[in-house]
């Protein structure tokens, strides 16, 4: 199990990668074949960041009765 500090560090790392890819993406021509792959990578990073944030802020309560 990872500590909260490790999870936070991973979120920061992924956020920096996402920011870098977004800046590269904004400089690319949308018709460039690499643009769609870059967009997919950005979406995957966003999903990973959201999952890690959920781990840090895990909801409490019952899901089933």
Brief overview, please?
By secondary structure, the protein is mainly alpha-helical. 74% of the residues lie in helices and 0% in strands. The two termini are 28 Å apart.
Summarize the structure in words.
- By secondary structure, the chain is mainly α.
- The protein has helices spanning 4-27, 33-56.
- The longest helix has 24 residues, at 4-27.
- It is elongated, with a radius of gyration of 16 Å.
- The mean pLDDT is 89.
Produce the secondary structure layout.
Layout: H1 4-27, H2 33-56
What are the defining features of this structure?
65 residues
N-end to C-end Cα span: 28 Å
User: Percent helix among the residues?
Assistant: over 70%
Number of helices: 2
Strand fraction equals under 5%
Count the beta strands. Answer: 0
Structural class: mainly alpha
Let me know the average pLDDT: 89
Radius of gyration: 16 Å
Q: Spell the H/E element sequence.
A: HH
Largest sheet: none
């Amino acid at each position: 199990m990872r500590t909260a500090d490790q999870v936070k560090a991973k979120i920061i790392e992924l956020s920096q990668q996402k920011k870098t890819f977004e800046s590269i993406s904004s400089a690319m021509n949308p018709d460039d074949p690499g643009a769609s792959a870059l967009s997919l990578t950005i979406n995957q990073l966003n999903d990973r960041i959201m999952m890690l944030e959920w781990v840090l802020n895990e909801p409490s309560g019952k899901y089933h009765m």
